Amino acid sequence: MEFRDRYAAGRALAQRLAAWRGRREVVVLGLPRGGVPVAWEVAQALQAPLDVLVVRKLGYPGQEELAMGAIGPGGVRVTSDIPHLWPVSEKALEEVVAREQAELTRRERLYRGERAPLALAGRVAILVDDGLATGASMHAAVLAVRAMQAQRIVVGAPVASVEAVRLLEAVADEVVCVHVPEAFRAVGLWYEDFAQTSDDEVRRLLAKA
Fold first, then answer.
1. DSSP string of 113-147?
2. Which residues does UniProt call coiled coil (predicted)?
3. Which of 9, 19, 87, 168 sits 20 to 30 Å CA-CA off 68?
4. CB 75: neighbour CB atoms within 10 A?
5. Per-residue exposure over 16-28, b if at least 16 CB sit within 10 Å of its own CB, e if not
């Protein structure tokens, strides 16, 4: 365990991103739910605005923690190697996509209400999550932000697998992590307190921001 909780992890990550402090073009985007407390600390340290970018993992039927891919705003969809290794029917895949799209829409409405997303065109977007296992969700986030015409995309996480970093370095402009262990196993193992972040906590942090 390297971090006491997500807030401590966010402070550690912010130190690695200090070069962006005070830059007016920077926007910090947290991936709900667990990435938002981390992103909150980063945004505070960098003196940057905070928003959310809702993406949803596409879990393998019966083993939902196994990512078949992910979806993001604007119809973005990425797939992993899982469906090739363990084939899933097109019908089952589309059912997962439909369910997660409904949840993505619900969360965007819940977290942001009527407030419009921050404009990203020509800006530096720092995308933050609490950890990167496969990198699928963050991959979808990067593609979504790229479509919003961000000038530069920086991916940040307290901990990530070697495979996730390799994947994201190919699509983002920069990847910044505090730890990239050879033996990754799971994000939660790197936290003393990895309790689930609630919707209320996400809303509270966004309101404070």
1. TTPPPPP-TTSEEEEE-S-BSS-HHHHHHHHHHHH
2. none
3. 9
4. 9
5. ebeebeeeeebbb
Domains of the chain in sequence order: 6-54+119-208 (3.40.50.2020), 57-111 (3.30.1310)
Least Cα distance to 71 among 63, 59, 83 occurs for 59
Q: HEC profile for 56-99?
A: EEEEECCEEEEEEEEEEHHHEEEECCHHHHCCCCHHHHHHHHHH
Q: CA 66 to CA 58: how far, in whole Å? A: 8
Counting every residue, how long is the chain? 209
Question: Do the strands 56-60 and 174-179 form a parallel or antiparallel pair, or are they unpaired?
Answer: unpaired
Return d(Cα 22, Cα 26) in angstroms, integer: 8
Helix H or strand E encompassing 27: strand 26-30
Averaged pLDDT in 10-residue chunks for the chain of 209 residues:
94 98 97 97 97 91 83 86 74 92 92 87 97 91 93 98 96 97 93 96 93
